[in-house]
Specification:
The structure is a single chain. Helix 2 runs antiparallel to helix 3. The protein is an all-alpha fold. It has three helices and no strands. The two termini are about 20 Å apart.
């Protein structure tokens, strides 16, 4: 027996990109905090940029496009 929330997740599995984007954004900001509190000795601007651009922005862009395009075009959602 599948619950209503499981049915929605199975119907639109790409929504996980929003959760991944949030976690990547949090990780990108956490690098600043770890450096500021001296928990890491060097700040990695490259790592921060990768989390923010590839993780945060990339995940939200993919999640948004996979949500919006089928609705704008009036076609079946992506699976």
């Amino acid at each position: 027996m599948i619950s209503a929330s499981s049915t929605r997740i199975l119907r639109e599995p790409f929504r996980i990109f929003f959760v991944i984007g949030f976690l990547a954004g949090l990780a990108g900001v956490l690098i600043w905090h770890l450096y500021h509190t001296k928990m890491i000795s060097q700040f990695s601007g490259v790592m921060h940029a990768r989390f923010q651009i590839q993780g945060f922005l990339g995940s939200f862009a993919v999640g948004f496009l996979l949500t919006a395009i089928p609705r704008l075009l009036g076609v079946r959602p992506c699976t």
